[in-house]
Predict the 3D structure of the following.
Amino acid sequence: KAGVTQTPRYLIKTRGQQVTLSCSPISGHRSVSWYQQTPGQGLQFLFEYFSETQRNKGNFPGRFSGRQFSNSRSEMNVSTLELGDSALYLCASSLTDTEAFFGQGTRLTVV
Amino acid sequence: KQEVTQIPAALSVPEGENLVLNCSFTDSAIYNLQWFRQDPGKGLTSLLLIQSSQREQTSGRLNASLDKSSGRSTLYIAASQPGDSATYLCAVRTNTGTASKLTFGTGTRLQVTL
């Protein structure tokens, strides 16, 4: 079966711009979570969506937002990009609170 | 606040050696624990999931144990191979009502040499 698909794989943006990342979970999975990975901070939780509702949110500024659609696909948006937002953004899907499966990530570079 | 620590941060072993990676967590009220593998610049590949009620899980050359009361998990890799070279991450899932999230350790970077 198809895994978790994240698009695009790579992005280069300029400071001040905004960006939207997409995540398609494994078919049947209703939970989608987003994580930011940087060399200095490791993997940090951004937010989790379940059946179109945000169930949990990490400690990130309001510039980071997300949503989930009725088909469980999710998007995250970062507005007013800063250099420090450069990271690998990972999406994970799971049935409920069981095994999490991750996508290949989107590498965002802010210049 | 849940904190996850992995020791060692890096490890280099010759091919064929058995090895143990360690993971510790501060809050024992976990739902499950998952071990992942990450190759450079790639996403995470799930290796093993241990539910909070379980003591261990095995998959091929991998065996993971969980001691929830002491806040520890170990990942045992038997007969290591160069293809095992990667960063290994452990993550604990905590639930607060309807909300849950994974808290990750900083990983152990493993290199298996010929």
User: Anything to note?
Assistant: Chain A touches chain B at residues 4, 6, 33, 35, 42-43, 45, 48, 50, 55-56, 58, 88, 90, 92, 97-105, 107 (CB under 8 Å).
